[in-house]
Records
---
Amino acid sequence: MQILVFLGYWLLPDSTNAFTILGSPLPRQSFLQEKVGSAGETDAGTNGSVEPRNKNLHIGGVGEATERLGPLIPTVWSAFGRLAQENDKIVNLGQGFPDWLPPDFAIQSLVEAVQDSAQSPHQYTRPAGHPNLVKQLARRYSAHLRKEIDPMLEVAVTVGASQALFLSLQTLIKPGDEVVLFEPFFDLYENQVKLAGGKPVFVPLTFVPYDVDDDNGVVSGGEWILERKTLMNAVNTKTKAIILNSPHNPTGKIFTRGEMEFVAEALELTDPECVVLSDEVYKYIVHAPPKERATEESLFCRGHVHFASLPGMWDKTITISSAGKTFSATGWQVGWCVGPRHLIARIHQLLPYVQFCASTVIQEALARSLPRADEPYEGYASYYDFLREEYTRKRDMLVTALRDSGFAVPDYDRTPGGGFFIFARIGKSIAEQLPPARLFAKNDAAPGGIARQDWALCQWMAEEHGFLCIPSSPFFSKERAQQGVSDEFVRVAFCKTDETIQAAATALSKLKSDHTSVAAPACFR
């Protein structure tokens, strides 16, 4: 909901697409001037385009942070979130949040925390992190990294991992500094770098198909790799940070140890104070672990290697993570940074001026949940073992549905994978069904304002077939998306109930049957 203060009055949007001042409707266009549109407020055109309702809104000046982000336009999340909200029959495998409750022990921990008058968790706590939680995190990361972590000096608790990354960048980056992003990348990274005054430098991962696409239009799955030469050519003495995300969103890639060593090697060519920001929110969801990592894995993180554990990297790394993905509680919004005290101290310095402290109740609940997660759970040695097995099973359900409908997907017997997304490649039989009028239609939310194949297909599948996933283009730089690099891919989430995934499989099977009926000779229809 928008609330604007205009010439001293409160302006509230109403259902008639007008603003109300003291009870009197005021048409939007009476004060809308040339410039920008509002994220999340869009109208769908008849050809599948999306028009911002108030794209010309411009009242007064803007601050420097807003200027760094550029024009105010709809995002992929607002555009596709709106589609799901307007049609409750759509099966939503778009955004990455589970549609089930957290584990019982986490809910019980929350109830206990709420009712614990002795701990007084309903008041402010230490800005750098609730003492009970930072002690638990230090205990765990001491085991993860095989190094003693000081809970008060080397851990900082934030409002989710997004804020952990934001504050890390704010403490590291000056205007003009360069920050390396491996492309495709989680779209939040680019704008957080810009908000800090930095310049994103995109290092493309290379997609390597398993097989050559055949003459019948059958495309192959494959894997994404980091090429050493590409990285080395991108860094220089202006490079102040490298954001590493493994397991990776959106591709599910797990960076090999060799690729991590490329990153460590690249630091020799950067600014001496360059820091690796290692985003590890999916570390407990390694559903296809690299076969060579049996001796490298850390506590409960089968197949995961913490970048900070590499030789000499502790002093050059801020490790970022959160509770949301692990405990299926993305709304808890508790994240953290772990690193050397000279880097964490700067984050501690900023925290009181941002939100003072993350929720004390939630921090206390998480502190109680962490040791309970180590205990046997649902017939497994720990909750983390249960979590991996559940996600592996759900992944396989979705892999089968996507493959059967004409998408190419990773082969997890040969390609390691983690997180809860599949970066599926659009098959020819799927692409051929897309109505030509939707391709390259004007769409303000799409990169460059044009709906290329990935975006047009996702919007068409949602609107016409009731299956929603996310186009890949927002995870690429604008320039590369406009070159068509992202045309062939979509991101599909499997952090959903079996019933939701099965409903998606049904929608996808109808998509396939529609193509078969169109392609079949008349005598077989």
---
Amino acid sequence: MAPKFLSLACIRNENCRDLSPRPHYPSMPKYPKGVSAQEKNTIQGSESKAVYAVTGMTCSACAGSVEKAIKRLPGIKEAIVDVLNNRAQVLFYPSFVSVDTIRETIEDVGFQATWINDETKDGSNQVCRIRIRGMTCTSCSTTVESALQSIQGVQRAQVALATEEAEIYYNPKTMSYDQLVKAIEDTGFEAVVISTGEDRSKIQLKVEGVRTDHSMRIIENSLQALPGVQNIEIDPTVQKFSLSYKPDLTGPRNFIRVIESTGSGRFKAMIYPEGGAKNSHKEEEIKEYYKSFLWSLIFTIPVFLTSMVLMYIPGIKHGLDAKIVNMFTIGEILRWILSTPVQFIIGRRFYTGSYKSLRNRSANMDVLIALGTNTAYFYSVYSILRAASSPNFKATDFFETSSMLISFILLGKYLEVLAKGKTSEAIAKLMNLAPETATLLTFDDEGNVVNEQEIDSRLIQKNDVIKIIPGEKVASDGFVIWGQSHVNESMITGEARPVAKRKGDTVIGGTVNENGVLHIIVTHVGSESALSQIVRLVESAQMAKAPVQKFADRISKYFVPLVIFLSFSTWLAWFLLGKYGGYPKSWIPQSMDSFQLALQFGISVMVIACPCALGLATPTAVMVGTGVGASQGVLIKGGQALESAHKVTCIVFDKTGTLTIGKPIVVSTRLLKNMVLREFYELVAATEVNSEHPLAKAIVEYAKKFREDEENPLWPEAKDFASITGHGVKAMVRNKEIIVGNKSLILENNIPIPIDAEEKLAEIEMAAQTGILVSMDKEVAGVLAVSDPLKPGAKDVISILKSMKVKSIMVTGDNWGTASSIAKEVGIETVVAEAKPEQKAEKVKDLQASGFIVAMVGDGINDSPALVAADVGMAIGAGTDIAIEAADIVLMKSNLEDVITAIDLSRKTFARIRLNYIWALGYNLLGIPIAAGVLFPATGFRLPPWVAGAAMAASSVSVVCCSLLLKTYRRPKELDTLEIRGISVE
């Protein structure tokens, strides 16, 4: 399984000299559908080529969605999308479709497209991942994204608010990642580089004993001389060496050996203690908000008590009302002193955030908070200073408003980062699967183990032999060279049953060995491992924006300016109504005048509005949904795939390897001569072992049953071997002419077929099996029945899909007889047989034209055009790399039940997103009018600014918590009662 996941990563390690580093799928039909023979002659040679710069794509799933959309248009001959270079190359017939129509189609998918005359060959690209601190809403992420996109040399930039990360594809020949960091910092946010380069293995070493720059240079030169070392970065302050290298040529143990031998024993090298950079950043942010909240509380509680509680206790009230200068009281100066640190020291983050936002000509939540708290604070300062200078003016201050606002907002941010940290737990769990140590074996020349050494698992190199004892985690991807055991792969594939492993079987790093000792040879380490590829796919999926996110992005552009306008309008309306007698004086509280009442309404409107809730509605749900999918063995390549999957109304199934196991097996044997079955199969296997046909392999595997005492049995020698394509094989074995093949091959060799054999053949074909005749010395000796059995539960899965109102169709390249029989067995009514790859894609397009939202489930190269053409492509995890690459969703367990899980999970995720939007929009649509005082005339109810601030903080937290409820997702109940049995192939 492990090698299959090497194609899953969205980040590739290839030079982009031609367009698209992705596999090229079989071409589209040569001419548009419905074109007559005469029109074909007219348009032949008239095709045009257009190249588009496409921005916003994040991975192969995005490229696939663009490719699908283009290929659905009439008049498209070929379309290739290059996700790394942000290019789409289209061959089309101008008489059927225009350049602008293609561009608009790409934009309808959710990406920006620009038609360019010539394709720029930039050479190889690199990807840089950067953590960004300080973003609060979609306005912030959009600002950073725009700044990065505007840099020359940047192919594509994607900024995710929920993960607080940016993924940038750029040309290293024209710029460096330092420029990316500077561009982010210029927008006013803190940037920390997570990784640079593409798919390069990296390791960080701490070197002790280095005291001079000269020693540093000696070590650097020694390491640089090693084959496979690509790049070395040195941080002399902490004695850290960061090395990028090719794992095929060298590895970390070589580096440590070179370093320690360079200084004649003076230098000691070890893995640099990182301590989980991503988690430490989250923990640091949580601690920072918690600390800020506690400090604000220390100052805010006394302010609250002096303004709202102690004023009603007679003795204390008298002391607080004692005048210092004119009408300036002790209570007012206490509140001023206590609220100032909250406003300017603890609340400094809101000033810096506002400044950075406004400098970039945008407005975010910080602007609203800064405006609201400043209005309350500086009006209070003005009021008490006026009281100090006047013997008659009695001040009314709102210091409690500004300090309590900041305290509640900090509490909300603390709870929000706490909850957001839990949305990415799926990645953290995957990353923690790798064990910390491994047992390295050393062998002598005769292959005997001479030494066992426990090493840090990060020091494992390719071709190392690792010992795995029962209960221990597999340290790295590889294959078994000795031993037998069962391995629990549930943490990777979601498959609950342990999988039997013996010599030659592959194992995946992070899985758990159950009951036997295994020796494995390491095949993939570092970023090449299956676990790393899965982590990267989930990370990229969580970075990718769902199309529904565009709704929040559009609103965020106008949200803050609109709120500021509404806030000012609220204050002005109430102020003018009060000034000109628009409402009774009795409405004004005793401690206020009409100006102050209007001011409170205006501040409440400003601080109750919450753009954050809108911005977090989609990404948090997508993060949790993709994480839950990964834990269930369903890898969803981003928000686009999730959004499309929940709308699916029709599923097209391939037959071989999808509805069936995909591995032919011999199910029955009928001998027509008196001979021992073992001898019969020895002669047949000796003939078929020279053939590569799947049916031949099935026969040889079955023949091994009779030679169980031998691990790799030697078959008798076959002379004069000949393979007759589409018919069978023949050879001379033990001086007997053996022919194994179909009926026509036997008849061509003038061999009579007995009635018994004819009857058996008819019976086999009725059962949707393949009949094979065996003749020995011109006489039919036996009939074999070979079948590709249905996957357990296939019939039940189709039945459940019907109950979900999803139509099922089977499209296969097999003959009509077998296809009809299989379809009837599983309950599929519509069958398309003997279909070529491009005809499968055409069938998908026909269904789409009929109004269906189509998902395609397949496993082979011949399925990739249909996977691309479908609205959602689902690849069986045991399928080919090209099918996995073309798909939007990968079903790692290869169980059909996961098709239901994928659709159900996407429906639940989008129900949660809708709920988030209803809450976020409903909160603002209800909260803003209430804060503006619409209920005040009738009920006397008004929302104090500090309560409005608390409500705003609670709204963001509630949206994240609503998304987190997806973690409780359970598969449909029907699947719990559906027993997916083990597949035993004999």
---
Amino acid sequence: MADPKGEQYSISGQPRATITDFDPPKKPKKNVFAIACAVLASMTSILLGYDFGVMSGAASFIQEDLKLSDVQIEIMNGIICFYSLVGSFAAGRTSDWIGRCYTVVLGCAIFFAGALLMGFATNFSFLMFGHFVAGVGCGCALVIAPVYTAELSPASSRGFLASFPEVFINIGILLSYVSNYSFSKLPTRLGWRFMLGVGAIPSAMLAVGVLSMPESPRWLVMQGRLGEAKRVLDKTSDTPEEARLRLDNIKQAAGIPQACTDDVVRVTKRSHGEGVWKDLLLHPTPSVRHILIAAVGIHFLQQMSGINVVVLYTPRIFKMAGIKSSDNQLLATVAFGLVKTSFILVATFLLDRIGRRMLLLSSVGGMIVTLGCLSLGLTFIDHSRGKVMWVTILCIVLVLAYVAFFSIGLGPVTWVYSSEIFPLKLRAQGMSIAVAVSTFTNGTLLMTFISLYKAITIGGAFFLFTGVAAVAWVFFYTMLPETRGRTLEEIEVLFGKYCKWRSTNAILAKTSEDDKNKEVVHVDGSIKRIRYS
């Protein structure tokens, strides 16, 4: 009688493939270590959200205490964006020199000093100097947090993890609204100082926490520290095969031979940012030029849609909509912050499920509708003689709906998308340019919004934002390819053909499908299908 076990082997003596060998691979669990690192790095964005949102409530108290004009309030509200430009530009080059983690720590330390200076300010000039210091710190953290998270994350959950900075910006805004309401009960001269100064506490705690994080594996490879990079990738990848593949891709991008396995090697390519500005701006390849247009475009249009105008001037907008009590205005801003944060959290779970493009286009479509209706509602209130309660309620609902649509798509996708599309050697400086455009646009809007709505009415201002949102939808549909599931090194291939990117995406999709069906014969003769993500 034949041995039944012998039937399991081929003539060559190798085990035969069974039907289970061809089953689709099980989806790996979320990498807890990568999530913890992404959360800690992204929490630095709380500082920006808090510093930005706290002014919405503190401004009226500052104006009353220091006897400031509307023009000075406009300048104070918008100038932080220009101040953060200094930190944004410095952060790109600094992070290439000292690493992503130490740059984040530096940003936290600068913000700590700025928050204390604002809290102890005795006049407008003193307050503006503290605002400048805090703004530089915000700029540092704002650029590096999404870059670090994108470089650390496995491809399967990069969208989920890279959206964390936007989540924590909104948590910071929500905390600032709660702080505004809580300290508004204090005497005017103390209330706004506590609102601004209390921001120093989280910055100190975050600076200590960030020191416990590992450095970005891509930055380590660019410094020739392969051994450290391999250990970080082993901890942050879903599988050992993915860790090896990610390391090989990063080594190739850094100009290190694939066969090199030393722990420390000499890197021949630029590793500290030398010549990067020339590659980005003076002599970019078609792919890099397309990437730069996409990153700058999405940041510019995000800000021009008016979201931060709504965040910072929410009390004024609610006042124009018919809410006269300052307490009720501050309570309404808390509701605004809750909606914004809740929908951002929903978006984090959708980015890797349905993709960047679908979320982005759906989000902007909803913004167009809500902004258009809000414009009509505010115009109706502006021309009515008395208070019309149903229009007031409708306008409040439309503001919350607009924020919800923004937060579920355009808000998080902007940071995820721009942090993942730049090539390795251009990533930090590329993000610096994108963030600089974002902050410049934001600052210009905030410093002119009061004058704008006084010139063309509040309804006219929101009609303008509606038109910008419509232009944004067309730009996103034609120019931005889907990046979900691609490694950071694969993404560059999608760019370079501008509106014709779909042909390249189809080729990559076919190649990816072929890889999924690839059989690998191990040394022991077993046959296994592998999947690269």
